[in-house]
Design goal:
By secondary structure, the chain is of the alpha/beta class. It is built from 22 helices and 14 strands. It has helices at 2-5, 14-31, 56-59, 68-76, 107-123, 163-167, 176-182, 193-199, 208-221, 239-242, 251-254, 258-261, 267-275, 277-281, 285-291, 316-326, 354-364, 368-384, 406-417, 444-447, 449-457, 470-481, and strands at residues 95-98, 127-130, 133-134, 145-146, 152-153, 174-175, 188-191, 226-229, 264-265, 303-311, 397-402, 425-428, 460-465, 489-491. Helix 19 (406-417) links the parallel strand 11 and strand 12. The longest helix has 18 residues, at 14-31. 45% of the residues are buried.
Length: 492
């Protein structure tokens, strides 16, 4: 196991040895646990908890949504937001706030950033200070800030660690409000990321595992309880690193920690998926019960006959042409060697016309015809392994994750149904039922629509995504964590 944690070039230091020892103990504790991930329940008595095997029919009919007030109340009432708790939690516990966190970007850029920061906190034995999410670049627009538990749960959002780590008193993530109350400015040790990069010799050419090593060493050595990475410091896991193969050195460690393995969707996300199961799968509630699994820890149903398609449209067209101009590769975990579909943009030059551009657009901005042919190929390849793989079934439903206009989605649905392939059901994001919004602020369920799409894709029997998309990369990470083999996750 040490090979997973050691630096790629085999170098080490006396300071890193102690950090490595801590990480090894934490991971060994985690790996010694039964692989039954922990659930994070909300305290509101009226809500529908994770539905049991016997209540699935009722679950597909109604689920009481949580309001923003409910979610904020849940976060503020987390048991670790208690200044009287013993060390390493409480008023004198070990905490770290990253004031460099992304805001105003897409949901998946922000989720990825927060999960990686919570990894640094976990490995340095500090409580991660989690913050709200906003899609507005103006941080002063209060109405556009949304609680993190609108979208996710689990350790990054204040959820519990697995029992052995909880027994070892690994500090749990805390709210910004609790941080402000126990760590006023005069108690904080401010850390300039530029100084850390200089002292640890980190640059944009560094491997991601070296970046983690440098930051964990720094955060471990600081004695102050309240540590804040200063606003204005360089982004730790920046766009260049996440779009480089250098991020892959981090995957074995990151994917083994409870930051990933105990990741959970929010209660509202689970509720939306559950009540929309007939729409997603085309199966009746009674058929869903016959296919449900009471042993499943998060979703007591399976989506093994569903093929999920992630199709970016809208402003992603501009991103595609930026990729073509700069010659960027696939992003994040989409670059893993075990992924079956690979593509490298031909050089850092502008692709303006010709067959190279047409080939590239087929990967980043596929046409309906290209989508149908890729679906046909994946369906054939997936089903050819049915006899070799226990539990694998024919794909019978398609679920489309897309921000495309309704008219384009309908054309795609029609093309899939007329393709000669056998589909019992073709549905998409726009077909789901959400709690209605009131006024200009979307309801918590509607705001989490992209997370709902991800929850479906992360459990689908097969998935085709966009290799240049962070959303696809996060889905790939979760699919691999959920035990789905790499050959079931494909790219356009």
């Amino acid at each position: 196991m040490s090979a997973i944690l050691l630096r790629p070039h085999g170098t080490s230091s006396v300071r890193w040895t102690s950090v490595l020892a801590l990480i090894t103990v934490l991971i060994l504790l985690f790996w010694s646990l039964p692989r039954q991930p922990l659930l994070d329940y909300y305290t509101k008595s009226q809500i529908l908890a994770i539905p049991s095997h016997s209540s699935l029919i009722a679950a597909t009919q109604s689920a009481v949504p949580l309001s923003y007030d409910d979610i904020y109340a849940y976060e503020q009432n987390l048991p670790q937001n208690n200044d009287s708790l013993p060390f390493p939690e409480g008023q004198n516990g070990r905490m770290v706030k990253f004031s460099t966190e992304l805001f105003g970007y897409g949901l998946n850029n922000q989720l990825q950033d927060r999960m990686l920061h919570s990894l640094l906190a976990f490995l340095s034995n500090r409580a991660y200070v989690f913050t709200d999410v906003t899609f507005n670049y103006d941080p002063n627009t209060i109405a556009d800030w949304h609680p993190l538990n609108t979208f996710i749960s689990g350790p990054t959002a204040g959820g519990s660690f697995p029992p052995a780590l909880a027994a070892a008193r690994v500090p749990r993530a805390i709210t910004q409000a609790f941080w402000e109350s126990v760590c006023p400015p005069e108690r904080r040790r401010y850390v300039d990321g530029s100084v850390v990069n200089m002292e640890k010799r980190l640059s944009r050419q560094s491997e991601a595992l070296d970046v983690v090593e440098g930051w964990v060493t720094t955060l471990r050595e600081l004695k102050e309880p309240c540590v804040e990475v200063m606003s204005g410091s360089p982004v730790i896991f920046d766009f260049i690193l996440m779009n480089s193969p250098k991020v892959l050195s981090l995957y074995p460690l990151f994917s083994s920690t409870p930051i990933v393995t105990s990741f959970r969707w929010s209660q509202n996300v689970v509720n939306v998926v559950t009540k929309n199961l007939p729409t997603i799968t085309g199966l009746s509630p009674s058929d869903l019960v016959s296919r449900s699994s009471p042993e499943s820890s998060e979703f007591p149903y399976d989506l093994s006959t569903t093929l999920a398609l992630h199709l970016r449209r809208g402003d992603f067209e501009d991103h595609c042409f930026n990729v073509a101009r700069e010659g960027w590769s696939y992003t994040g975990w989409n670059q893993l060697a075990l992924m079956p579909d690979k593509y490298q943009v031909p050089g850092a030059r502008s692709l303006t016309s010709g067959p190279e551009l047409e080939e590239f657009l087929g990967h980043c901005w596929p046409s309906i015809e290209e989508i149908v042919e890729k679906v046909r190929k994946v369906k054939v390849e997936y089903e050819s392994r049915i006899s070799e793989t226990s539990g694998r079934e024919h794909l019978r439903a398609v679920y489309i994750l897309s921000n495309a206009k309704k008219e384009w989605i309908e054309l795609l649905k029609d093309a899939l149904m007329k393709s000669g392939m056998v589909w019992d059901n073709v549905a998409g994001s726009r077909d789901l039922a959400f709690e209605p919004s009131s006024g200009s602020i979307p309801s918590p369920e509607k705001l989490a629509a992209q997370a709902v799409d991800m929850a479906i894709a992360a459990r689908a029997g097969a998935f085709i995504g966009n290799g240049f998309s962070t959303m696809t990369a996060n889905i790939v990470l979760l699919r691999l964590t959920n035990g789905l083999t790499a050959d079931t996750s494909r790219f356009w």
